[in-house]
Design brief:
The protein is built from 17 helices and 12 strands. With about 450 residues, it is α+β, with helices and mostly antiparallel strands.
Length: about 450
């Protein structure tokens, strides 16, 4: 098939990666700074630190106050934001092409020169605690926190990304400073720019920011520039000066947690272990997910909502992590219908374990997934995220064309094997937020599903 993108990668002497994709037909750019660290890399005493740092970079740098930071983006119609996940922290902006240099300058200052004023540290703790309380007030969000706790227990993946009120209050300015210093020196870091960008200009600006002399030899030798993937050139995808954080695999547990709140419906997550982000089995699972629970044409939506009227919405969700994977199903229903809903879900899973997908269903799922990939190419933000994932080592050797070819190559036998490995509700864990006074034994329900 026709080549869809021509990204350029460059490894600087200090281990920082720069990845760009130039699109001449747009007048904008999405720019991101990705740190390959998230909540799973925290110990109990620092739970919530990555998320806290994400908040604090917006509180000012040595040269800009908080208002000036956002004005540098919004004054010309752009936007700036950030997020923390279990495995990464990202700081990003989208701007018109005339503001690329300014936007990158601000993002670099935010991440590397954040002021971390003690007064702001104290104030922002209260803001984050309010954010944590808002999750507790939202059944849809709380049930995910409970599911992580149920299935990963005391492992960092079982802890909330934002931390708890107790853990956040215990975080200190020194912890934030140390976190910032690791971003400056040792945490795997990639700067990604997609849109009407000039690769050489981006590299030059990053070099200047890190005081790197062109041609200098660092821990990983001279910098390199190629359209090949990072891993193909370096063997690991990262300079020795910024080696990937050692991550302890999490053992999935088939545990069940319920919590009673002042709500009307039962909000439920059911799920089990699946595949990590590097597994070739993720492609059959993506297609299985598409047919089972992705959208209004999916089996779960058509059965539980359209046929039986048990739910307003229902969905499946594959989560591919560095060392493990999770596949779950989420829905909300009246408590009296909960057991029937789980039973109907079980029937759909059993049918897939027995028969897999028909040739027609598999072809439809492939068109859906590939169409979504191609539509995503119209978004510089989507392209930015995909480039970052490649460089940070999840699947650095896969081009977009290769991903599509691997999706096309999935067979009905692959789907059937995946269904029998993943869709085993008797091995699943669960979480539910229930109305006050309601009890439910989801473990027993899943054992019968």
């Amino acid at each position: 098939m026709k080549k869809l993108s021509t990204p350029r990668y460059e490894s600087l002497e200090n281990g920082v990666w720069v990845a760009t994709e130039s699109l001449s037909h747009v007048r904008s750019a999405s720019i991101g700074i990705y740190l390959d660290t998230g909540s799973r890399d925290e110990v109990p005493e620092t739970n919530g630190l990555s998320h806290f740092f994400e908040h604090m970079v917006f509180k000012g740098t040595k040269g800009m106050n908080p208002l000036e930071i956002v004005q540098r983006f919004e004054a010309t119609g752009g936007q700036v934001n950030a997020y923390t996940s279990k495995e990464q922290t990202c700081f990003y902006g989208k701007v018109v092409d005339t503001e690329i240099k300014s936007a990158l300058e601000v993002l670099l200052d935010m991440v590397l020169d954040s002021r971390l004023d003690p007064v702001d540290v104290k104030k922002e703790k209260e803001v984050i605690i309010e954010e944590i309380r808002s999750v507790d007030d939202s059944a849809d969000e709380l049930v995910y926190e409970l599911f992580s706790q149920a299935t990963f227990g005391s492992h960092a993946l079982g802890k909330p990304i934002a931390g708890t009120a107790k853990s956040v209050r215990a975080l200190t300015r020194k912890m934030l400073v140390d976190h910032r210093d690791r971003a400056r020196k040792s945490v795997p870091l990639v700067i990604v720019a997609v849109g009407r960008v000039d690769h050489d200009a981006i590299v030059k600006q990053v070099r200047k920011r890190f005081n790197i002399r062109c041609g200098a030899v660092g821990a990983n030798g001279p910098s390199t520039d190629s359209t090949s993937s990072p891993r193909a050139r370096s063997g690991t995808g990262l300079s020795r000066s910024r080696m990937a954080i050692a991550r302890t695999p999490a053992t999935f547990r088939a545990k069940h947690i319920t919590k009673n709140k002042d709500v009307q419906q039962a909000s439920v997550i059911l799920g089990g272990s699946s595949y990590p982000s590097t597994s070739p089995q993720r492609f059959p699972l993506m297609l299985l997910h598409c047919a089972l629970g992705d959208g209004m044409s999916s089996k779960l939506f058509q059965n539980l909502r359209e046929t039986y009227g048990l739910v307003y919405s229902i969905f499946s969700n594959p989560e591919f992590l560095a060392k493990e994977g999770v596949f779950n199903i989420g829905f909300a229903t009246e408590p009296k219908n909960l057991e029937k809903a789980v039973r109907e879900i079980g029937k759909e899973l059993a049918a897939l374990r027995k028969n897999g997908l028909t040739a027609k269903e598999l072809a439809s799922a492939k068109k859906n997934i590939i169409g979504g990939i191609l539509l995503g190419l119209e978004s510089t933000s989507n392209r930015m995220s995909a480039l970052a994932r490649r460089v940070l080592g999840q699947n650095p050797d896969e081009t977009l064309e290769e991903i599509i070819a691997k999706i096309e190559a999935v067979t009905r036998a692959d789907i059937l094997k995946c269904a029998n490995e993943v869709l085993q509700p008797n091995r699943w864990g669960s979480a539910a937020v229930l109305p006050k006074g309601v009890k439910a034994d989801l473990g027993a329900m899943l054992a019968k599903a």
